[in-house]
Design brief:
Mean pLDDT: 77
Number of strands: 6
Number of helices: 1
Strand order of the largest sheet: 1-2-3-4
Strand content: 25-35%
Helix content: 10-25%
Distance between the termini: 27 Å
Shape: globular
Largest sheet: 4 strands, antiparallel
Low-confidence stretches: 1-9, 12-18
Structural class: alpha+beta
Length: 81
């Protein structure tokens, strides 16, 4: 539960860091944090995983929202019908 709470608190900060999509499909969110493509979930929605050079990343699946932010909530993902 602590990790989920931390993820929800950190996501707006990560999204605000800006960045862009890299040639390998990852999204840079800051100097040390990237979101790497992680395949798809059971419903076919693309997932991402956090990668960090300086700290242990959160081990949660992330999804893209319609406005390009990241969320751990499947219902908020852009692929939700």
């Amino acid at each position: 539960m602590r990790r989920l709470r931390t993820a929800l608190l950190c996501l707006p900060l990560l999204a605000a860091c800006g960045g862009g999509t890299m040639s390998d499909g990852s999204v840079r969110l800051g100097d040390k944090v990237r979101m790497l493509p992680g395949g798809s979930d059971a419903g076919g929605c693309p997932t991402y995983r956090m990668s960090s050079n300086g700290r242990a990343p959160l081990r949660l699946p992330f999804y893209r929202t319609a406005n390009g932010d990241f969320t751990t909530m499947r219902a908020e993902a852009a692929c939700t019908p």
